[in-house]
Design goal:
This protein is of the alpha/beta class. It is built from 9 helices and 7 strands, in the order βαβααββαβαββαααα.
Length: about 230
């Protein structure tokens, strides 16, 4: 059992848009189970969920202008400061949603270095089960995140299956063990300092905290449509 005064932070990202949302339901189950296993390891942990649907307009604006607004910058700050990420998307037309992909497109390439990431997806049919391995893992590999061996896919018929609960539990155990190892802190610091960061993208924690741009200037307000 680990003992520490530190509070670990799990940030879950849900790209569900319906109400109620099976994507949000899977996100919540993964988050709750991960926090439970961290507690069993003797760690203090807290979790939060970033819903992408309410900030879809902000994401679209940042995609076209290159400059995120304050609300989106706060969400990015949460991602940068997290000890682990749970990323869950609905599957549309045999791929992760455009909203999900757009959010990660505007993150600085180094924000997720060595950060444990639990991948999840929901769909109406089991035919989409390979989307996580074929499309989501390559995205997070490019971002140099530590994706867990176990991912969780839930089709409509899976919600009544005990296998889904077992898979959620297995993925949560893997996440909790990686978080407890502090692997992200040991790797990401040196890697971040060794790379040049493009100031045209202000999504990294460093650029956010340094206020690299004056977002309230007349020119910047015009650029972002405010």
């Amino acid at each position: 059992m680990h003992t520490t005064d530190r509070t670990y932070r799990i940030v879950a990202i849900s790209a569900g848009v319906s109400e109620p949302s099976s994507t949000r339901l899977l996100t919540d189950r993964l988050t709750q189970k991960s926090l439970q296993h961290l507690e069993q390891l003797g760690l203090v942990a807290e979790g939060g969920v970033i819903e992408l649907a309410p900030i879809a307009g902000e994401i679209a604006r940042a995609t076209t202008t290159g400059y995120p607004g304050e609300l989106l910058r706060e969400k990015m700050r949460q991602v940068a400061q997290a000890d682990a990420i749970i990323a869950v998307t609905p599957v549309y037309k045999a791929g992760p949603s455009g909203l999900f992909k757009s959010f990660f497109d505007i993150l600085d390439d180094d924000v997720l270095i060595a950060k444990p990431v639990l991948l999840g997806a929901t769909a109406g049919s089991g035919r989409h089960a390979l989307v996580i391995d074929q499309q989501m893992r390559p995205l997070f590999a490019y971002l140099r995140a530590l994706t867990l061996p176990t991912s969780v896919f839930a089709a409509s018929e899976d919600w009544s299956s005990t296998e889904l609960g077992s898979r959620i539990d297995r993925a949560a155990i893997e996440l909790s063990q990686l978080v407890a190892s502090d692997v992200a802190a040991q790797i990401s610091g040196k890697t971040w300092d060794a790379h040049r960061h493009d100031d045209s993208r202000t999504t990294s924690e460093q650029l956010i905290e340094d206020d690299a741009f004056d977002y309230d200037s007349p020119l910047m307000r015009l650029a972002v449509g405010r």
